[in-house]
Amino acid sequence: xxxxxxxxxxxxxxxxxxxxxxxxxxxxxxxxxxxxxxxxxxxxxxxxxxxxxxxxxxxxxxxxxxxxxxxxxxxxxxxxxxxxxxxxxxxxxxxxxxxxxxxxxxxxxxxxxxxxxxxxxxxxxxxxxxxxxxxxxxxxxxxxxxxxxxxxxxxxxxxxxxxxxxxxxxxxxxxxxxxxxxxxxxxxxxxxxxxxxxxxxxxxxxxxxxxxxxxxxxxxxxxxxxxxxxxxxxxxxxxxxxxxxxxxxxxxxxxxxxxxxxxxxxxxxxxxxxxxxxxxxxxxxxxxxxxxxxxxxxxxxxxxxxxxxxxxxxxxxxxxxxxxxxxxxxxxxxxxxxxxxxxxxxxxxxxxxxxxxxxxxxxxxxxxxxxxxxxxxxxxxxxxxxxxxxxxxxxxxxxxxxxxxxxxxxxxxxxxxx
Length: 418
Hints:
The protein is of the alpha+beta class. Helix content is 51%, strand content 20%. The strands form 3 sheets. The chain has a 4-stranded antiparallel sheet with strand order 3-8-10-9. The protein has a 4-stranded antiparallel sheet with strand order 5-6-4-7. The chain has a two-stranded antiparallel ribbon with strand order 1-2.
């Protein structure tokens, strides 16, 4: 039987039933299932990951369904505390399937290492001297990580920028490093540290900063999907979504929320796979503002059939080796659930999730309003916060939703009456 991410009424199944489905889909071992269903890592493991450990803060791990990406079915592990995000992504992916699902692409996994040089009298002449010795500098950088070079990665090129402001000038050297299946921070930083004495000798200047840039504009992932008008509510809905998108193009107050919604899905997958959410978030928002104005990470338009076509383009610096991706048992299990084989494939899946999340938000905002679905799912949190337990949680939720009064005070009143 062909495996599919189109799983009917998954949310109605018990926790054990959901785990069984995911186990069979991804061929997880009993140990991996146990790690997912428990706290995930021993306190001793966590003590090796960060400093001054005293415990752990758990985040719910859910599964995004219905994703068809480049003709292949994926189920998507998503770690997030906000209700409605996973359901919205799954519903958007279900609609996208009718138009062929998502198609994706990505650039090579190239990261930038920056070396800042100051106290240079003739910066443009110094820039020339650096570029003249480009091959020597790259060779020295690659000597720091022969394994990465053996895998086809390593330092590939060099750029030198003269930056001038308020009568001061400095050089910034960009070391372009293909990181293959690693996020690359450690490799890039090591290379940047290794070459700065050479750069100081060439220029007579002083190196200050030697560190990776999180504006990973050479490591871009893209995704595209067509949402058929008849599937999403008609051509009027298509027009409403495009109108909503146009506000994000024109108004930064809306753009910030537009892109935050994209990152709901993106960061949930990044976190689930043990990657660096802060790096991806910083890179995405910097990329959105790279031309001087903060813009949406997605684009929406109508094709000749009147269907809605969405695309997304953003830097996604993630890896499959190193860091928590290889040390945290739940992160390792999440990678196995996804079944991705390269960091580039993972970045493309993440881009598809971001596009799905954005569609779901725009459709809800431009039709029924964002609160209707969101607050219905949020009602369970409200009921629990009011003190409801067991079967009373569902009863409180049912009454609050029926009344349209999803508030902590009303939940307490209902609970008292029960």
